[in-house]
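Amino acid chain
________________
===
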Amino acid sequence: MRKIDTSKAHYVGLDQRIAPRSDVYCRLPFVMPDGRQEMCTCVNISADGMLMRFERGLEIGDLVVFRMPIVGRIAAKVVWSIGGKTGVQFDKSISVEDYLPMIRAMGARGDVN
């Protein structure tokens, strides 16, 4: 898995994602950097990261921990945040064996094989 250095800009074609995303709409609990528990809405997800909606926003570099269906706790780093939308990169990729059951449990839209 290739990790992106978030300390500088990267332009890898039009889509800068490492892996394709699955569209979902799922409320997820997560722990903020200060230890407070909050809820966000996951909009899309891949094995390496996700786009979430969280109105209060987060700072680039913040570390958060999500409680996901199937896989449980997963830590992530904020790579961008603007206008109530935030992109995070997971510390560890979600395994192939867990990914499909997880996105089904999250209500994935479209064709999920």
